[in-house]
Amino acid sequence: MKLLVAWATRQGSTRASAVVLARALSALPGIEAEERDAARVGSRDFAAYDGFVVGSSIAAGMWKGSAKRLVAKLGKAGKPVAVFASAGGVMTGRKPGSAPDAPPEGSIAERQAQAVKLYVDPVLAKLGVTPVAKSAFGGRMTMFGKVQFDSWDAAPVEAWAPGLAKAFGAK
Ligand SMILES: Cc1cc2nc3c(=O)[nH]c(=O)nc-3n(C[C@H](O)[C@H](O)[C@H](O)COP(=O)(O)O)c2cc1C
Known about the structure:
Helix 1 (13-26) packs across helix 5 (154-167). This protein is an alpha/beta fold. The mean pLDDT is 95. The radius of gyration is 15 Å and the shape is globular. The chain has one domain (2-167): 3-Layer(aba) Sandwich (Rossmann fold), CATH 3.40.50. It starts with a strand and ends with a helix. It is built from five helices and seven strands, in the order βαββαβααβββα. Strand 1 (2-8), helix 1 and strand 2 (32-37) form a beta-alpha-beta unit. Strands 2-1-3-4-5 form a five-stranded parallel β-sheet, sandwiched between helices. The chain has a two-stranded antiparallel sheet with strand order 6-7. Flavin mononucleotide (FMN) is lined by residues 9-14, 57-61, 86-90, 139-141.
C-alpha cells in the first residue's frame, strides 16, 4: 500500500511530524509512505497512492490554504484521507499565563481530542469530508527570535502510525 503524507507548515512542526509519520508508516509491513509539501500535490498524483494524510499548521485557528484545498480535492475525488493539525494552545496542556515550566495538564489523548474538536472537525464539516482518521500534535512557535513554546514530540506521531495504517485498510 502506498501512502502520501502531505504537509502545510509555517514554522516547521507539521513538516517534522510528516517526516516522522512517513518513516513510522514505512516501517510497517506492506506500507510505503512518502512525504511532500501539500502545495506540490495535485489531482495528477491521486492515482499513484492508495491513501493520503494531510497535516496543517494552525495559526489564529486557521489551516494553511494548501492543506485545505488538498483535502477538498481528495474528498471530491473520493480518495481515502486522514487529517492532522499542528497546534500550540491546547496541545501545550498549559493555561494562558501559567509558568512556562508548569507541568502540562491532562493526558496527550485529551489534548489531541480537544485540538481535533477545535481545529480539525469544523474544517472537515465545512468541506463535507469524512476522514478515515484524524489527530492533532504539538508544535513550536518562535517569535522575535525567541522560542515561545515547544510542545512538539515525535512519540505521539509514531504512536498514531499503526492505527492509521489499519484505518487505510492495511492488513
Ligand atoms: C501567528 C501564529 C498564530 C497561532 N495561532 C494559534 C492558534 O490559534 N491556536 C493554536 O493552538 N496554536 C496557534 N499557534 C501555534 C502554532 O499552531 C504552532 O506554532 C505550530 O507549530 C504551527 O505549525 P507549523 O510549525 O507547522 O507552522 C499560532 C502560531 C503562530 C505563529
